[in-house]
Design brief:
The chain has one domain: P-loop containing nucleotide triphosphate hydrolases (Rossmann fold), CATH 3.40.50.300. β1 and β2 form a beta hairpin. The protein is 41% helix and 26% strand. It has 9 helices and 10 strands.
């Protein structure tokens, strides 16, 4: 279980400071597919980075499986079983897909073992295993390779920050299938995804809505998703009405 206790995070802006995450408390149960959503600038990605250890909270405590990890680094958290997927995966010059998977696993894997991870994310292994990560992969391919490395790492908690960013519709559809399979098989322990996409929200066990650095709603998909969809529909109608009134 991941538990955030009164977490705040602020950044300095010239002579002032801005609080991005405000006194947030949150419990994320084991074995769940959890989606954090909300308006842009609400603090979602910042919270993901705080969980991963990229940012250190200004105040509060973070517990993972009962252990205080507030001051632990990204590397220390990774060793405990927390993996983080960036919006734009890092490209490594001269490293092949197989090299990357072996690095993630922390040991040398056979071709067959490496191929199994690629197959799990819907990539034809023989077409990708020896390709360089740096320049030969599209954004969607690179995103799925990154998920394969998360699988190889065997993490207890996998955090994905807007995994749909920068990929085309076809790649997004394949990404949904990957997440559906991970959820169905409980292959990767707990999964935490930052996303606006309704199709990703639709496969969540739990949805957390964040706005202006605070949790405004949290609950099961059946409880939270209908309110989000109706709110978006109303906003869309209002926008159309306003545009019509101005013309």
């Amino acid at each position: 279980m991941l538990e955030l206790e009164n977490i705040s995070f602020e950044v300095s802006e010239e002579d002032d400071s801005k609080e991005i995450v405000k006194d947030m408390s949150l419990k994320l149960e084991d074995g769940k597919f959890i989606v954090i959503t909300g308006p842009n600038g609400g603090g979602k990605s910042t919270l993901a980075k705080v969980i991963a250890g990229i940012h250190k909270p200004t105040s509060g405590k973070i517990y993972f499986e009962g252990e205080d990890i507030t001051q632990k680094s990204v590397t220390e958290r990774a060793k405990l079983g927390i993996a983080y997927g960036f919006q734009q995966p890092v490209r490594f010059k001269g490293i092949t897909v197989r090299d990357l998977i072996c690095l993630a696993a922390g040991k040398k894997l056979s071709v067959a073992e490496s191929c199994e991870y690629l197959a799990e994310v819907g990539l034809c292994a023989k077409d990708y295993i020896d390709r360089e990560v740096n320049a030969s992969l599209s954004g969607g391919e690179l995103k799925r390779v990154e998920i394969a490395t998360v699988l190889a790492r065997g993490s207890k908690l996998s955090v994905f920050d807007e995994p749909e960013a920068g990929i085309d519709l076809w790649s997004f559809q394949n990404l949904i299938k990957v997440f559906e399979n991970m959820r169905k098989t409980n292959r990767q322990g707990s999964i935490l995804v930052i996303s606006h996409q309704e199709r990703i929200l639709n496969i969540a066990d739990e949805i957390v809505v964040i706005a202006d650095g605070e949790i405004v709603k949290q609950g099961g998909k059946e409880e939270v998703l209908p309110t989000l969809v109706s709110t978006e529909a109303m906003a869309s109608k209002c926008n159309k009405y306003n545009m019509g009134g101005e013309s």
